[in-house]
Amino acid sequence: MPNIPAPVDATQTAAWKSLQDHHDKLVADGISLKEWFAEDASRVDKFSYDLNDLRFDLSKNLVTEETLKLLCDLAREVGVEERRAAMFEGAHINTTEDRAVLHSALRRPASDAGRLVVDEQDCVADVHEVLDRMYAFAERVRSGEWKGVTGKAIKDVVSIGIGGSDLGPVMVYEALKPYADAGINVRYVSNIDPNDMAEKVRGLDPETTLVVVVSKTFTTLETMTNAREAKAWLLDGLKASGAIDGSDASVADAVKHHFVAVSTNLKLVADFGIDPQNAFGFWSWVGGRYSVDSAVGLSLIIAFGPKVFEEFLAGFHDVDRYFCETPLEENVVALMGLINVWYSNFFGTESHAVLPYNQYLHRFPAYLQQLTMESNGKSTRWDGTPATSTTGEIFWGEAGTNGQHSFYQLIHQGTHLIPADFIAFVNTPNPARDGEQDVHELFLSNFLAQTKALAFGKTADEVRAEGTAEWMVPARCFSGNRPTTSIFGIRLDAHALGELIALYEHIVFVEGTVWGLDSFDQWGVELGKQLAKQITPAFHDDEALSQQDASTRALIAFYRAHRE
Ligand code: F6P
Fold first, then answer.
1. Buried b (16+ CB within 10 A) or exposed e, 375-410
2. For residue 94, what are the β-bridge partners?
3. How far is CA 260 from the centre of its chain?
């Protein structure tokens, strides 16, 4: 194992014991947000934090000042501050892969070149060398200077990737759509299901399409299969229209004009036929799910331009600095991670909802699912020993108000306690009025109403006062004390989005450190990949079929019987 201190068992710390006692006492005394608010007029001030243009209101969480103090004690006892420093300095805290974890280097300013030399690499200088190349390339595409093989400017980009090579770019593309100013559309293909590719290239003209293949390893089954499919689609289209004659030279020329790649494996990129000049690299110290601000964001730079991407990176960097420089007690990033531990380990919550009240953030929950669950969905600690507590929250969510008409019933009145993060913005790029009513205010009133109902509920007396029949009163009561955090921003721009992503990256880090996890590996996705390779021949090969388990054999028999 790399020379990293073994994790401290959080459950054996003095702070853990104090937190358990504190929890039991709170429960015994009766947790009541309504009373806590009534008793303390400064509760909102005490539990509100400003981080640049984001306001965080933690007051509707099931916490007291004592809770936060004890959680900070816990963070200190397990060494969150030391591990944070180790991560930012480039120690190999990704122990199972013996790698540094340096996504924070992706957003450091060029003036920091020479200040972060890790494993003999000047990380910041290398980041900016690639960024400059990407900016220059993107400007050529955006201005129309970059031409397809028949001399036409690019109108559409098809970005092929999966997991961290897809979820981040798609989420950001959707979130920042109002800033897309070059008239270039991006479509993202991820699934190996041929339907995904078929639908995404439908209607596109190969002569004006640029394909960006994004894969850290350049070996991922889905991405490489889709990249070959895209190549065939493009070349067939060009041949059919007579744009190329199909000779080896014409094919190579077409690939050169229509394919670029993003990867850490530049040799495999060249083997695919992509001109190394048109390949943009990143490094093993950037995990896939932490990579949207690396070359993986190339499609975003094409769509939005270098200036917007710079603002995006600045948002990340501001949160990195805040996270590192703010004392734990005032550090809302650390506190949010610690409060998640509070719910998971002391209240036994299993899931965590993320509810953006902004349609542009509709892919944010999906993005966070990989970030949080691929990072902390583990039962072995970074030194190979078993986890000593529950780990890994199940993140899920949906943009408001759509979720309200779907699963909020369970959050309000179900038997599960589900902490929820609400995210909203004061301004909208699309103001609208319905008669006299400002529609954005109507929307925001829903965000406020939901957190209010979850916190304060509705009593039996309040229900009775509405004239409800007695037998029906329980069904119409709301218990309240259902915890929420409100994140209220001024506007959803590139800077704010960078801040939000970095916020959750570091929340994951804090939780992972308390649980003793290597939040940067993902061995749990490997077995399925291996088995898929073994199973593929069994669709046609009886010998391969005979080696499968009975259930797989039966399902393939069904397939063989019905395949048309
Ligand atoms: O799903 C596993 C995983 O390795 C993710 O961590 C990663 O984001 C994704 O596959 C894609 O990998 P690559 O970028 O190497 O194609």
1. bbbbebbbeeeebeeebbbebbbbbbbebbeebbee
2. 99
3. 24
Asked if 381 contacts 516 with a C-beta cutoff of 8 angstroms, the reply is yes
Each residue of 466-518: pLDDT tens digit? 999 999 999 999 999 999 999 999 999 999 999 999 999 999 999 999 999 99
Cα distances (Å, whole numbers) of residue 227 to 50, 192, 197, 255, 274 = 44, 10, 10, 11, 11
The answer to whether 506 is a known catalytic residue is no
Q: Which two tokens stand for residue 5?
A: 């201190």
Ligand 1 pocket list (CB less than 6 A): 162-165, 215-217, 220, 223, 288-289, 374, 522, 525
Contact 407, 400 (CB under 8 A): no
Of 101, 39, 47, the residue nearest 330 (C-alpha):
47
Q: Which residue is it, tokens 């004592």? A: 66
From 97, 216, 226, 367, the mutation candidate for ligand 1 (largest count of ligand atoms within 8 A of CB) is: 216
Distance (Å) of CA 508 to CA 162, 345, 375, 395, 515: 21, 15, 7, 11, 11
- The answer to whether residues 86 and 4 touch, using CB atoms and an 8 Å cutoff, is yes
Residue 326: pLDDT band (50, 70, 90) is very high
* CB distance 457 to 479 below 8 Å: yes
Q: What pTM, to 2 d.p., does this model score?
A: 0.97
Q: Is 100 left (phi over 0), alpha (psi -120 to 50) or beta?
A: beta
Which residue out of 374, 398, 499, 511 is catalytically annotated? 374
Determine contact, residues 281/130, Cβ cutoff 8 Å: yes
- Detail the DSSP E strand segments found in 316-404: 351-357, 394-397
The residue whose two tokens read 């994140």 is: 487
Backbone angles phi, psi at 355, to 5 degrees: -125, 90
